Amino acid sequence: MADTHTKTSSLAESFAKRSPSERERAWEKNTLAPTLAKSPERQAEFTTISGHRIERLYTPADLPNWNPDADLGQPGEPPYTRGIHATMHRGRLWTMRQFAGFGTAEDTNERFRYLLAQGQSGLSTAFDLPTLMGYDSDHPLSEGEVGKCGVAISSLADMEVLFDQIPLSNVTTSMTINSPAAVIWAMYLAVAEKQGADLSKISGTLQNDILKEYIAQKEYIYPPEPSMRLVIDTFEFGAKHTPKFNTISISGYHIREAGSTAIQELAFTLRDGMEYVEWGLRRGLEIDEFAPQLSFFFNAHSDFFEEIAKYRAARRIWYKAMTERYGAKSARSYALRFHTQTAGCSLTAQQPYNNVVRTALQALAAVLGGTQSLHTNSLDEAWALPTEFAATIALRTQQIIAHETGVASTVDPLGGSYFVETLTNEVERGAWDYIKKIDSLGGMVAAIERGFPQREIAEASYRYQRELDNKEKLMVGVNAFVSEEKPLDILQIDETVAHRQAARLKKLRAERSNDDVVRRLSALRTASKTRDNLMPFILDAVKSYATLGEICDALRDTFGTYEEVAIT
Amino acid sequence: MPEKKIRVLIAKPGLDGHDRGAKVIARALRDAGMEVIYTGLRQTPEMIASAAVQEDVDVIGLSILSGAHNTICPQLMKLLKEKGMDDVTVLVGGIIPETDIAPLKAAGIAQIFLPGTSTQDIVDFIHQRTAQPS
To answer: Is B70 in Cβ contact with A129 (below 8 Å)?
Structure first.
């Protein structure tokens, strides 16, 4: 498959076809040539962090067939290159949504309330690995992992504590949970109901993107088929009961963190989105009934313009795919909304204060690319989960961009730049090549089973590592400008978290009606063997305080588990 | 006579699935002429120790980003000792707070490689280590 490197040849061809104006040709002869003769450029070739070739200068000659009305359009109108709202950040700033979670539900509840008090506008929950893998905190495989990478949630009782004194009718919450997403979402809905919130009005986002788990992050439980069924169950349930809740956040973030190029991130994510749409349609759902609840999540990496081009191209591709492939009629279905997180993999353990600068620049790219919400990483995350001090700087970084730089004062300030428009076109073209390749493999599930996206990412990731090792690409403080420094004060996760969680689970199992739990789990198990939507059964089980592990085990009984064939 | 290849087991213990580092290292060591066996994801210390014995490896490389290193590493070292594999070199790569480095080394981990390490440094370390007379 042609990736960005082999693509340079076709790009070179397209540049060969450029027909520069007479003035440009005169400039090349009279000004450029003598300059190059006197002082050659720093490198023979300039490429993005993804290996995409960048030319010396972009002029109208690079956009020969470009039509501003058709290709750029107006903000809030197809093809949405300039953004999905007419006024973009002039009308409403992006949601500042910092991902947080560690220790017990009490610990994270405290951090949530702190962040809201600091002016954060939405919540985003990080769950620990046992939760992500559908194990209770007291499961043998959870040993050493409880509360480490996020908050430990084993039952509705934990979820009640997590959102204590946080009114779910007013605050939007994002939950980074995938394989057990239906269960965690059911717990969230149960808490919202208990608080007296109207489910038809609550809003938030469930990550629920299992395809990128097989591709990149690898936190899967069940095989693809039953996993996709659970996802479509949440679409169907959400369309009916929680129309304002994003039932999925189709994520390129993790694909990029796994080492993909920008074009691969874009292509695999959007093709994942198309796969979900196709499975929803096959279930018999109407496109405009569930597509408005699909949202996206992209990475903001360090190559500034490549990232901006990626977001602009994303909107254009999604608009075309939704209207041309799936016949979407509602703007709410074909206007791509996305969250962005700055690139965790770009953070360095060395000279960690430099990470504030990296994050600020990445966040700026996301804002200029028209993001709807944003998480900025903390400076200490190559060492540990962030301290409150580091998390506050990360939030302040967004507030500075929003209120001091002026970049939010106009819509798509880079629109019409010869460079940005050309790069947007090239990124779009590269992504379509991949999308069509995946179509030809029989769709994303089939492509994953053949290891196609996994292999492409592994190649790109290894190539980048080689470039770092050979100093063809530089990282300040890592392979250039190295200096000695003092260690940081980092967040230590209390080792008693696991014991406290285990004690809480023991108490829960003793106090709840176990007959009720057994009955509801058995109803879920029976339903899992039919084609019924499982959400009502999961909700029922959750409300009896059946644990996450018990519910996931019931489904493991029917669905089995998935093991990948590792590609190295 | 061809020199015996250094045998390395790259393992991903714990529940974490972030395997970018493990896969890059596996490939870099292979490119450096070593025999590399990658365990795949979610290996318990028991599974890793058994694989190390079965594959008769010289080096075990653990990739841990989840914060579970203080639980996993001592367990693995104990199992290796029980299986008579005390001479195997165990390396850890990943997100490891500075304060945990000394205790991990005291538990028998030969070296800890933090984010940003060049793959050549790891190759060099393994060569140096395996060249030493046991």
So the answer is: no
DSSP codes joined into one string, A112-166: HHHHHHTT--EEEEEBPHHHHTT--TTSGGGTTTTTTSSB---SHHHHHHHTTT-
Contact call for A568 and B27, based on CB within 8 A: yes
**Cis preceding-peptide flag for B13 (omega within 30 of 0):** no
Distance CA(A252)–CA(A268), nearest Å, equals 7
d(CA B92, CA B109): 7
pLDDT at A517 over 70: yes
Alpha-carbon gap, residue B69 to B77, rounded angstroms: 12
**Residue type at A320 in one-letter notation:** K
CA distance A241 to chain B (A): 33
Q: Distances from the Cα of A186 to the Cαs of A364, A494, A548, in angstroms? A: 35, 28, 10
Q: Which of A465, A490, A568 sits opposite B97 (nearest CB)?
A: A490
| Total domains in the fold of chain B | 1
Q: What is the pLDDT of residues A66-81, one digit of tens each?
A: 999 999 999 999 999 9
H or E stretch covering A28: none
Domain presence at residue B54: yes
SS (H, E, C) A507-547: HHHHHCCHHHHHHHHHHHHHHHCCCCCCHHHHHHHHHCCCC
pTM score of the predicted model: 0.95
Instruction: Tell me the C-alpha distance between A339 and A122, whole Å.
Output: 12
**How distant is the Cα of A71 from the closest Cα of chain B, in angstroms?**
36
Residue-range domain boundaries for chain A: 68-469
Q: Are B13 and B62 in contact (CB under 8 A)?
A: yes
d(CA A84, CA A95): 15
Residue of B10, B12, B20 to mutate, testing the A interface (most A Cβ within 10 Å of its Cβ): B20
B66 vs A: CB within 8 A: yes
By Cβ distance, the residue of A142, A349, A469 closest to B120 is: A469
- Cβ contacts below 8 Å, chain A against chain B, sum to 112
Q: Could you say which DSSP state residue A220 is in?
A: -
Q: Give B38 to chain A, closest Cα distance, Å.
A: 8
C-alpha span between B64 and B61 (Å, rounded): 10
Do the domain assignments include residue B99?
A: yes
Q: Would B2 be classed as within a structural domain?
A: no
Establish whether this prediction's ipTM goes over 0.90: yes
Tell me the per-residue pLDDT of B37-83, one tens digit each, with 9 for 90 and over. 999 999 999 999 999 999 999 999 999 999 899 999 999 999 999 99
What is the CATH number for B127?
A: 3.40.50.280
Distance CA A438, CA B3 (A): 44
Q: Which residue has the tokens 């300030």?
A: A413
Q: Model confidence over B1-50: pLDDT tens digits?
A: 567 899 999 999 999 999 999 999 999 999 999 999 999 999 999 999 99
Which spans in A321-353 are helix H? 331-334
Q: Which residues from chain A sit within 8 angstroms of residue B98, using beta carbons? A: 383, 487
Q: Which is it for strands A373-375 and A95-100: parallel, antiparallel or unpaired?
A: parallel
Which among B17, B23, B42 is the nearest to A217, CB-wise? B17
**CATH number 3.20.20.240 given to A68-469:** yes
Q: Residue B71: which domain range?
A: 7-131
Decide if B23 and A567 are in contact by the 8 Å CB cutoff.
yes
From A148, A257, A258, residue closest to B67, measured CB to CB: A148
Q: What is the mean pLDDT of residues B94-111?
A: 95
Within a domain: residue B59?
yes
Give me the mean pLDDT over the A425-454 stretch.
98
